[in-house]
Design brief:
Elements (H helix, E strand, L loop, with lengths): L11 E5 L4 H12 L3 E6 L2 H11 L3 E5 L7 H13 L4 E4 L14 H28 L3 E5 L12 H21 L5 E7 L31 H13 L4 E4 L1 H12 L1 H17 L5
Parallel strand pairs: 1-2, 1-4, 2-3, 4-5, 5-6, 6-7
Helix pairs in contact: 1-6, 4-5, 7-8
Amino acid sequence: MTQYESQLAGKVALVTGASAGIGEALAREIVRRGGSVLLLARREERVQEIASELGERAVGMGGDVTRDGDVARAVAVARERFGGVDLLFVNAGFGVNGRVDELSLDDYRRQFETNVFGAIRSVQEALPELKARSGAIGIVGSVNGYVSIAGWSAYCMSKHAVRSFATSLRAELANAGVSVTHLAPGFVESEFRRVDNQAKLHETARDPVPTFLVMPADRAAISMLDAVLARRGEAVITAHGKVAVHFQRHAPWLVARALEVGAGLAHRFGKSI
């Protein structure tokens, strides 16, 4: 049990990208702590299934953060069903993989449309409600918002942009009573690494990351929720993520060298990292 367990009683959260992984785990943890949640994702049937399992304090709704108005409609449903929205988790996203000479400009645009403009759209459409209730925003970025790696320039760029957005937003909204927490996970249990560049899930694909490095989604959700409820500015999730961010801040030359070596090995063996 954490010191923030009791802070969710009577509170309402909206979670985007809630059909699996971190988003689903956040929704489950919110309900476990006594809050109510609206789960929003493109896979409507899946979020409705999760909501049905969670009970009367959960509603699942189909929606896409790349479309104007979907988050606003979710806010309206949350207001009608639960009375409003106190917490927004901007979680929807995916990763485009490939070296720059393998990707098109459309690949980069598609990456930014979901991860960056989808985040902006989510915040803008929920903000009036959050201001009215002195709410809190959790923006899910990535350790790759600090550390950029070869073969993932589109994704890393998008997560650097998300981190910058969260930093600016935090200062803009401070006087309005709305907190902004940048959440930066490392490897967390999710479907992320089984989704292709078109944002299509390959259910039978193998996760290339060793299991000992992958944090269970429910543990990540606990840390993320605590950070948002504490109104912290930033939370790096996973031990390896904290190590990577620490060295990027204090010994960037070492990180750069390690990434150059890794990229060279990947190129030699015909793989991206």
